[in-house]
Amino acid sequence: MVETEAIIAVMMNERVTSVSELARALYEQSRYGEIKEDKVQYSLVEALYLLEKGKLVLKDLKDKDIVFDKALKKAIKLEPNFWVRYIAYRDMRNRGYIVKTALKFGADFRIYDRGVKPGEDHAKWILYPVHESSALTWYEFAAKNRVAHSTKKKLLLGIVDDENDITYYSISWTRP
Question: Residues 85-114, buried b or exposed e (16+ Cβ, 10 A)?
């Protein structure tokens, strides 16, 4: 059995970067990360997903390996809702979608239809993952729907349960 080489990346707080040619090749193929200043920079969810899949080796600034559980603890410390977001990210990636952050849209993620790469066309959905026990006011719900509508995307709510299963609800505006 031939082992595939893993991308070496460095985690510094919420930033994960790699200068590896493998990182650049994976970006070109599947759009993991963003190219910034000759480095590939990953969001925390992307880095942990690639770490879990064995495609990435995560190091700290002292060149020590960071295992998945330790990286997850750091991510949760930085971002309390991280696990719910990670479940949604992992599920969408496992289904073959390209998933990117959507902070500038006021959402968690942009989801691109299968076969579509960012830059070639626009995302089809914006995704808000929430835990099933979370409360969402009508005002918050309307605001999320308005953001989706104004960016010409469909709204997906991803409801994550205690077993880490996720159910998606697609919401759209309707004029009677």
Answer: bbbbbbbbbeeebbbbbbeebebbbbbbee
